[in-house]
Design goal:
By secondary structure, this protein is an alpha/beta fold. The protein contains six helices and seven strands; from the N terminus they run E-H-E-H-E-H-E-H-E-H-E-H-E.
Length: 209
């Protein structure tokens, strides 16, 4: 199957919220990957702990279908949903319902005129903070330093109740703390490519809507 590597998230048909709401199963820890692609990261997380609910958001519909087909055939508790996270995330989850958000190697959009397409912006950080449970985590990683620095600036400049676990304006230097790898991360390790990571934790209880 031929699947596009990049999709413009600012395309007009991606900017209309569809009213999607994703319920977390009661008593079950839920994790969400923003831009899950083939969801290798989530499938490995599900193998670690099959009791968790693993949710992937992806803007490429063909990949969503592929992930869900793999989940059904393997029995893994992984589900993918077609969504533009920058538009729909504020409405997708109940406050305090998510244990962890992962942003693994998002599209870098190198050209200056395309930087507004980058996934980490003020609205996304606010939405993640609102959906995280107290003590919940937001993990970001990229092999593009400029992109990672840009994301760090958004996180640090934002008043959301998220604490940088490496200290203010610092990258996380103790490797991937989750014990699983996305396909891109595996490639970075094999080629010796540097990866810049950030780990934030929700330090206060989210406000009810």
């Amino acid at each position: 199957m031929r699947i596009r590597h990049h999709v413009n998230p600012l395309r007009s048909d991606f900017l209309v919220p569809r009213g999607l709401f994703l319920a977390v199963e009661p008593g079950r820890e839920a994790e969400v990957e923003l831009g899950c692609a083939d969801a290798q990261f989530l499938f490995e997380r599900a193998a670690q702990d099959p009791a968790r609910q693993e949710i992937g958001l992806e803007i490429r519909a063909d990949l969503v279908d592929q992930v869900n087909l793999q989940a059904r055939s393997s029995g893994a508790r992984v589900e993918a949903h077609f969504a533009n996270a920058n538009v729909e995330l504020p409405h997708l989850f109940a406050p305090g319902s998510i244990a962890r958000f992962f942003v693994n190697f998002p599209d870098p959009w190198f050209k200056q005129r395309h930087r507004k397409r980058r996934v980490v912006d003020d609205a996304l950080v606010l939405a993640c903070a609102a959906a995280l449970a107290p003590g919940g985590e937001l993990f970001f990683q990229s092999d593009v330093f400029d992109l990672a620095l840009d994301a760090l600036a958004v996180f640090e400049d934002h008043p959301a109740d998220l604490a940088n676990q490496a200290g203010p304006w610092s990258f996380w230097k103790r490797g991937n703390p989750y014990g699983v790898r996305s396909r891109r991360e595996a490639w970075c390790e094999e080629t010796g490519t540097s990866v810049w990571r950030m780990l934030y934790r929700r330090v206060t209880a989210p406000r009810a809507r």
